[in-house]
Amino acid sequence: MDKIKIEKLTVFGNHGVYPEENVLGQKFEVSLVLYTQTRKAGLTDDLECSINYGDVCHFVQKFFVENTFKLIERVAEKLAEELLLHYDLLQNVDVKIEKPWAPIALPVQNVGVEITRGWHRAYVALGSNLGDKKAYLDEAVEKLQKHPHCQVQQVADYIQTEPYGGVRQDVFLNSALELKTLLEPQELLELLNQIEAEAGRERSVHWGPRTLDLDILFYDDRVIDTPSLHIPHIDLHNREFVLTSMVQLAPWHRHPVCNRTMKQLLDDLKK
User: Fold this and answer.
1) What is the pairing mode between strands 26-36 and 92-99?
2) Number of domains in the chain
3) CA within 20 to 30 Å of 265's CA: 71, 105, 225, 254, which one?
4) Which of 118, 149, 177 is the last residue of a domain?
């Protein structure tokens, strides 16, 4: 990924834990690394194909003037978020905020916070076998699309499938979607659980009937195993309906553990 760098932009802001910092304000130095693709701009000499670093500097200054936070950790987090949401060509950003006049009553050159944030690609499975199944799936897609830190990229066709897991119940309506998100995996899980709860999801029977079931299938190429979260989804390679949806969305996507593409996994399952 190409980089555009802005180093030690000096701005003035009213951020700090102490009341006098919020009233009097102080100097901050902001350094950014903007991760984007500059190839097209380099070939065409067209500023519209890149990120205007001058515009970014004025954006940062405006951000510092219009906001007041106690912690520079919050300043860095919010600035990264605002930059990623505002600039379509920005994929990732390093934000470094230094505070040369930190009121700590000791000689120090400066204190600072440095973070890296960016967009992630996740794939989410959807299912319902109670009530108006299509309405539940539609509502889940709409809520994800409306969330400020999520962008639904594409949704697979809705397909009817037989229940999985041996519990006698009605047929399911299933699908999957590709999601661009700023949320970390645990944060995304919490959002999906919230959407399920709003749809009246009850977890009384394992693999039992449900109004709405939302599962993270993949999150970038990460492999995560915690008591509450398994990525990739632990059983997706055995579920034809999941692989069918994934093949429609991203047949080339490679399982980071099995090292097989979605199409290869589906072909293997059908043998």
Assistant:
1) antiparallel
2) 2
3) 225
4) 118
